[in-house]
Amino acid sequence: MSNLTTVVRRKSKRIYVGSVPIGDAAPIAVQSMLNTRTTDIENSVKQINLLKDAGVDIVRIAVPTLASAEAFKIIKKQVTVPLVADIHFDYRIALKVAEYGADCLRINPGNIGNISRINSVVSSAKDKNISIRIGVNAGSLERDLLKKYREPTLDALLESAMRHIDILDKLNFDQFKVSIKSSDVFLTIEAYRRLAVQTDQPLHLGLTEAGGFRNGTVKSAIALGLLLQEGIGDTLRVSLAADPVEEVKVAFDILRSLHIRSRGINFIACPTCSRQEFDVISTVNILEKRLEDISRPMDVSIIGCVVNGPGEALVSTIGVAGGHNTSSYYEDGIRQKKRFDNKSLIDQLEVHIRAKAALLDAQEKNIILCNRINKLKDRE
User: Fold this and answer.
1) Domain spanning 15-257 has what CATH number?
2) pTM to 2 decimals?
């Protein structure tokens, strides 16, 4: 389906978190955070790999103690996803994980300490050629700002962010991104809007402590969706009191809904009524689980009757429109001669969706190969 609105990205500097480019029109990176104990190395590595399978670009790990830093060192050697070390209170831990291969250091202005300590962290980041994230959070602002504003207001959040941006600027360090989070939707949106015009550093989006899966998903979709639609944001994390893998899925759902970045299958399904000729809800639920491993972006429409089914199928990679006993099958908007028996619809759809995904993957690889060959010929 054609885009009625193209998102115009805010111009920002380019930094790197490991090999992942951030800002300057790079693809918006999806991040999540481990909820394992960092010292539980086996389960931490396992969760990182699950997040990788879900498509995560960057993983953040809390490093609250020196023992956690030692565990971080081991974890880093066992994974390939770039890791952000989340540091609070003790700047010496930041220095240690920088030595151990951290790809980015997240520091909290509210508790990292004085300028001398920040200078030490920045010097270490320069030496190791790694980036920093200034992570402002409404729940942990500096004491002097809380005394000045009495509560985490918009001005308090912005003053905290700009204070530390100025510090890093004066230290001639520009490999950093900034986040300015609150658990309130309106405060978060306005804080990022204001910050976006005051700095050209990349912005990491998030609605902190958004809540459980359903509530947190809704609030994050509103806050992050509005900002992304305005072109604000270079990375994002959907913070949920849920399985971190769900954070990644929701993040991609938000990006896909805005036609910014797609991964996996976008199911278009009717909410069902008495016209449905097969069980749409169970069909979609089962296929979503079965096809989680497919990363190829595809639109699949599953409509229970012929009212809207043919129309949705016209703009889908694959589509079905429910009919009596059998359903019409569409591919690339064209109705096919074959019809699917409604009793075996799920299995038939899975086979055809997987085949289509494999075909599209092969075509892309062939295009890439042809382009490389042409470039080599041009050099001759």
Assistant:
1) 3.20.20.20
2) 0.90
